[in-house]
């Protein structure tokens, strides 16, 4: 496939040969890196070449498709603006700083935290928020003030609250890193947060398909040729979260024992609450896996898109809209839980099927995972929603 003068979304999606592809003149050093992983999968990621204090530096901007071409260009432009405050006909002067800049400190935090993240979505969210940091990113992390933080966060606090929260977290963790390296003694992000007005957040639940209508959705998905259809059907059959299924690998499946073991690193949880989860596989789930193995082979990711990467949540959402499901991928967990409640499934078994973490006291006394009882429930559920 021939590379265009400037990268296009179609080129980024279709390119399947390893290499580094620049975005042409005026791209502020933006590049697409394509390479094969040790497992043989094709990986695509964004990076930016910048000259900082005369030294050529490479900055990662996240993995595709979590970060699209337009987002990568916005981040590259923001990084460039943070380094040079362009004034017409005046040579830009970079102020002397003590210690690294805020953006450089954030990069350090990203490098430290990347191995603990379950997928590239977290880093993509961070970098999407950092695109709004402006000239504050070029300030020394050691001299950053709460006024600096408020200057960038206040305009976003009401207009883009989720971006404001994520950006504030990035700055807070960068300041914590600076405190740990004795570059400063306080955290201006915490002071700025306390100065922001409180927002009333109304909790929203994921739209769910009524459990009696799930079978129809499953049939329409099975009849479609949508790339996300097998993943969505597997999510519905197992009642797991999208990220757990999207990252599933053949090495985690024991077809003989009809069991899928999800490692703790990919389970929801924090501060030590995440733990390995065994999922009993129904006859319908096993049949779907056998079909998928014939389709994509028996190694690496079980559910992947045309470029070999995990199927993103928004792709699943579009597929559900195509088949007029009227719900979300995560909503199938609610469909399953409603069915459990209406068919007399014991609460502790239903919660164990959903991998909900029990309280400290309950967890201390109940050590088993109720696999045998869960297997019976999941088999009955699969017969209910799949022909």
Describe this entry's structure for a reader:
This protein has about 375 residues and is α+β, with helices and mostly antiparallel strands. Helix content is about 45%, strand content about 10%. The chain has 16 helices and seven strands. The protein has helices spanning about 10-15, 70-85, 100-115, 120-130, 145-160, 160-180, 190-195, 215-225, 230-240, 240-245, 285-295, 315-320, 330-345, 345-355, 360-365, 370-385, and strands at about 20, 30-35, 40-50, 55-65, 255, 260, 275-280. The chain has a four-stranded antiparallel β-sheet with strand order 1-2-3-4. It has a three-stranded antiparallel β-sheet with strand order 5-6-7. Helix 5 (about 145-160) crosses helix 7 (about 190-195). The longest helix is centred in the middle third of the chain and has 20 residues, at about 160-180. The radius of gyration is 24 Å and the shape is globular. The model is unreliable at about 85-95 and about 360-365 (pLDDT under 50).
Q: How would you describe this structure in keywords?
A:
4-stranded antiparallel beta sheet, 3-stranded antiparallel beta sheet, 387 residues, 16 helices, alpha+beta
């Amino acid at each position: 496939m021939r590379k265009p003068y400037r990268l296009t979304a179609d080129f980024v999606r279709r390119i399947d040969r390893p290499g580094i592809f620049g975005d042409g003149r005026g791209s502020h050093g933006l590049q697409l890196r394509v390479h094969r992983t040790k497992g043989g999968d094709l990986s695509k990621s964004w990076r930016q070449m910048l000259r900082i204090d005369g030294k050529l530096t490479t900055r990662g901007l996240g993995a595709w498709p979590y970060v699209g071409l337009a987002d990568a260009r916005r981040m590259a432009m923001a990084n460039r603006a943070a380094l040079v405050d362009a004034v017409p006909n005046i040579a830009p002067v970079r102020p002397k700083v003590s210690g690294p800049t805020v953006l450089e400190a954030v990069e350090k935090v990203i490098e430290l935290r990347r191995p603990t993240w379950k997928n590239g979505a977290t880093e993509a969210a961070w970098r999407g928020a950092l695109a709004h940091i402006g000239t504050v990113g070029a300030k020394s992390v050691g001299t950053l003030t709460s006024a600096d933080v408020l200057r960038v966060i206040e305009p976003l606090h009401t207009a883009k609250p989720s971006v404001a929260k994520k950006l504030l977290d990035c700055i807070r963790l960068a300041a914590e890193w600076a405190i740990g390296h004795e570059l400063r003694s306080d955290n201006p992000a915490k002071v700025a947060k306390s100065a922001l007005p409180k927002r009333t957040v109304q909790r929203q639940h994921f739209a769910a398909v009524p459990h009696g209508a799930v079978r129809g959705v499953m049939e329409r998905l099975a009849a479609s040729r949508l790339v996300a259809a097998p993943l969505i059907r597997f999510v519905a059959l197992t009642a797991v979260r999208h990220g757990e299924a999207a990252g599933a690998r053949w090495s985690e499946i024991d077809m003989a024992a009809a069991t899928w073991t999800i490692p703790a690193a990919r389970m929801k949880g924090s501060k030590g609450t995440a733990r390995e989860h065994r999922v009993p596989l129904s006859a319908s789930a096993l049949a779907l896996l056998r079909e998928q193995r014939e389709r994509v082979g028996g190694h690496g990711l079980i559910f992947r898109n045309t470029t070999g990467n995990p199927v993103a949540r928004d792709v699943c959402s579009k597929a559900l809209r195509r088949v007029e499901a009227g719900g979300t991928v995560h909503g199938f967990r609610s469909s399953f839980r409603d069915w459990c409640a209406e068919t007399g499934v014991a609460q502790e078994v239903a919660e164990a099927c959903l991998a909900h973490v029990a309280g400290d006291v309950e967890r201390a006394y109940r050590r088993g995972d109720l696999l045998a009882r869960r297997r019976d429930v999941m088999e009955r559920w699969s017969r209910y929603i799949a022909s």
